C-alpha cells in the first residue's frame, strides 16, 4: 500500500481547451500526479499552453494527439476534446494502454460510450469521467445524511438546476453550440451535471421514464441551448431538472425525503474553493402561529485542503497506481456511473425529438 501511495502517475493532456487549464492545475496540486506531455495539432500551441500554465520543466510539447499516445512516459491521459472526438481518441488511448480521464459529456450517445468502455475493459485501463463535484468531501457528508432513515426518511423528490447566462460570442462561436463538435449543447454540458446529481441522490437507481419538458430552446443550427426533463421511478419517486445557457448562474440541488430535505446552491462549483456549504432540515414543522420553522434547518460547511478537481485527479491517480504497482483490476463503479448518466441523457434527448413523449430508460 505504501508503494501505491508514493507512485506518481504521469499525465498527458490531449488538447488545449480552456477546461484543460483548470485540470492541469489540479494535476499539479494532486500529491500523486504530474503532467509530462501536452498534445495539440499545433506544437507551438502546446508549447504556449505549457508556458502559460506553469507546467513542470521538461513537459514535452507534441504536435499531434498520436504523439502523446506513443509517448512511453505517459501513464494516463486527460481528454478535454469536443464530444464528437471522444470515441476516436479515447478508444485509441485505451488501445495504447493509457488510463483515461475523460471530459463530460463523455459521448454523443450510449452506443458510442459503450465503444469507449469496451476498449477500456479489453485493455485493462482505468476510466473516469471528469465530474468534479463527485469528489468533494461535502458530497460524502451529504450522502451520510441522505442515508439516515431517521432524519431523512425515504427519498420522494429531487430538483436540480444548472444555468449560466452566455454572451453573444459564446452563443455563436463556442464549441458547445456547434452541431459537428458538441451536438448535445446545454443538455450535454450542463444537463450532465443535473442528471448525475439526480442519480447520485437516488443512489444510482435508474428512473423508469423520462419526459422532456416542453419549451426547449434551440439555436439556428438545431443545438439545444436550454431544456429540462422530469423523471419517474416505479416506486413513485420523481425528479426534475433544468439547464440553460440563457439564464443567470444557478446551481441548485434540492433532495426531499419523507422526513428531511437537503439543499445547496453551488453543487457543481462551490462558492469558495476551500469550503462548501449546504443545509439540512429534518422533522421540521411550523411554529405555533405559522410564523416560522421549528426546528430550523441545520447549516453545514465542509472544508477541504485540496479543491475538488485535485481530489478527482488524486483519486484517479490512486486507482491507476494500484493497477500499475499491484496488478489490481480497474475500479468498475466509475464507468458504471458514467453509463447510467449517459443512458438518462439519451432518454431526455429522445423525448425531445419525439415531441415530449415519455421514454422508458433501459439498461
TrEMBL record:
Top-rank taxon of the source lineage equals Eukaryota
Q: Name one GO molecular function term.
A: nucleotide binding
Secretion signal span: none
Organism taxonomic ancestry: Eukaryota, Viridiplantae, Streptophyta, Embryophyta, Tracheophyta
Q: Can you name this protein?
A: Gfo/Idh/MocA-like oxidoreductase N-terminal domain-containing protein
InterPro entries from the entry? Gfo/Idh/MocA-like_OxRdtase_N, GFO_IDH_MocA-like_dom, NAD(P)-bd_dom_sf
Sequence ranges assigned to domain Gfo/Idh/MocA-like oxidoreductase N-terminal in this UniProt record: 9-128
The family note in this entry says: Belongs to the Gfo/Idh/MocA family.
Q: What residues does the GFO/IDH/MocA-like oxidoreductase domain cover?
A: 141-262
Amino acid at each position: 500500500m505504501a508503494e501505491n501511495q508514493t507512485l506518481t502517475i504521469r499525465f498527458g493532456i490531449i488538447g488545449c481547451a480552456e477546461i484543460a487549464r483548470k485540470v492541469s492545475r489540479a494535476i499539479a496540486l494532486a500529491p500523486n500526479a504530474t503532467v509530462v506531455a501536452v498534445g495539440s495539432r499545433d506544437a507551438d500551441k502546446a508549447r504556449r499552453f505549457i508556458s502559460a500554465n506553469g507546467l513542470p520543466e521538461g513537459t514535452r510539447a507534441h504536435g499531434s494527439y498520436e504523439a502523446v499516445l506513443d509517448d512511453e512516459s505517459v501513464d494516463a491521459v486527460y481528454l478535454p476534446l469536443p464530444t464528437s472526438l471522444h470515441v476516436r481518441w479515447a478508444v485509441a488511448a485505451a488501445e495504447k494502454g493509457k488510463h483515461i480521464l475523460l471530459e463530460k459529456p463523455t459521448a454523443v450517445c450510449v452506443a458510442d460510450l459503450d465503444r469507449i468502455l469496451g476498449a477500456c475493459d479489453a485493455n485493462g485501463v482505468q476510466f473516469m469521467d471528469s465530474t468534479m463535484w463527485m469528489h468533494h468531501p461535502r458530497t460524502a457528508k451529504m450522502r451520510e445524511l441522505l442515508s439516515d432513515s431517521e432524519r431523512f426518511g425515504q427519498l420522494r423528490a429531487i430538483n436540480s438546476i444548472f444555468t449560466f447566462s452566455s454572451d453573444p460570442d459564446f452563443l455563436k462561436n463556442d464549441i458547445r453550440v456547434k452541431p459537428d463538435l458538441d451536438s448535445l449543447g446545454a443538455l450535454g454540458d450542463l444537463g450532465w451535471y443535473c442528471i448525475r446529481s439526480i442519480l447520485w441522490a437516488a443512489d444510482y437507481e435508474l428512473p423508469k421514464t423520462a419526459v422532456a419538458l416542453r419549451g426547449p430552446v434551440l439555436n439556428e443550427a438545431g443545438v439545444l441551448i436550454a431544456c429540462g426533463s422530469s423523471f419517474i421511478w416505479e416506486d413513485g419517486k420523481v425528479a426534475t431538472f433544468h439547464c440553460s445557457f440563457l439564464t443567470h448562474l444557478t446551481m441548485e440541488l434540492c433532495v426531499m425525503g419523507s422526513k428531511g430535505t437537503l439543499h445547496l446552491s453551488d453543487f457543481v462549483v462551490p462558492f469558495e474553493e476551500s469550503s462548501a456549504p449546504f443545509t439540512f432540515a429534518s422533522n421540521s414543522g411550523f411554529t405555533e402561529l405559522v410564523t416560522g420553522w421549528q426546528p430550523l434547518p441545520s447549516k453545514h460547511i465542509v472544508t477541504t485542503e485540496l479543491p475538488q478537481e485535485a481530489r478527482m485527479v488524486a483519486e484517479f491517480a490512486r486507482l491507476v497506481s494500484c493497477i500499475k504497482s499491484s496488478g489490481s483490476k480497474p475500479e468498475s463503479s466509475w464507468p458504471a456511473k458514467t453509463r447510467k448518466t449517459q443512458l438518462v441523457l439519451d432518454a431526455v434527448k429522445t423525448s425531445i425529438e419525439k415531441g415530449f413523449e415519455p421514454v422508458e430508460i433501459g439498461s
